What we know:
The protein is α+β, with helices and mostly antiparallel strands. It has three helices and nine strands, in the order ααβββββββαββ. It folds into two domains: 8-32, no CATH class; 37-151, Immunoglobulin-like (Sandwich), CATH 2.60.40.10. The protein starts with a helix and ends in a 15-residue tail after the last strand.
Amino acid sequence: MTLTQKIKRFDWRSALIAAPFAVMLAWLVTSILDRDAPVDFLSASAVEKSAPAGGTIEIHFDVYRHRICPVIKTARTLIDSASQEHAVSNFTFSSNTRPGRESYDRTITVPEAAAIGTASYQIRINYACNVIHNLGWPIVVQSPRVFFRVTPSETQGLNLPALPPH
């Protein structure tokens, strides 16, 4: 059979009907296989080595952004010396991001209830770079743990008894 006979015999109508489904299947497969993290944390460290409970501490991050994707959820956690997890809600934020290497500092508030001693801070970010990620399978990126020391706050002080009334 010659090439022209094969072309004449080919069912073009079925091919035209199948083509959009093949394109959608290819898009679906590439979306499912897209699991590369949009951000790599190169390093993370505390600028100061200690902070009082209830006080603030500055954390320095070095990251490499491969691409910009929307953030679905961010969890910032401090684990104190008693292994208690504390959600960190007060922090500084900047939306001035672009692909490439970036260094930035974030100031967080150490929870007042954090136990005195060595603590660690970590960020967990869920990204949605395509529709599949939005449907419940996000790309999860965690920062390295940042260790620092929680010291007593001024209100915790020396726990002196109250002065008697005059």
